[in-house]
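The aim of this short unit is practical: by the end, you should be able to scan a pair of folded records and say something sensible about each. We start with the first protein, listed as its amino acid sequence and then its structure tokens.
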Amino acid sequence: MYVCVCNGLTTRQIESVAGDCSSTGGVYRALGVEPRCGKCIPTIRDTVSAMRLQQPEAFASEPARV
């Protein structure tokens, strides 16, 4: 499913990098794009938060920046 129409980003693309990112901005950087209209930010934020809950040991030393 498309999450970001402006950049053509799908759920799978976002999930593929969200586990390695600690913020929404990190997801954009990892995918090599910039936010445009911002309507996708809440969905990306939720995805990053979900990944943090699934892999808490990977983010233990980092503060949440979502």
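Turning to the second protein, read its sequence before its tokens, just as you did above.
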Amino acid sequence: MVGDAIVARPALLVLTAAGTIIYLATLPFSWAGGNADEAAEQLVVGPARSTFVRCLGCINSGRKK
């Protein structure tokens, strides 16, 4: 949990920001190719889910039930 909080979460936050920048830069090409939703899922939503929704120390994203 400590490694997740100190190393993984900040790295995932940087990855989410970088993915957002890349997604915005390539958005016209994604629209032209018809895969803007898939690109958003891979570059922004997935890393954001791992950063903010995944429980501390868990491997899988999502909330515990």
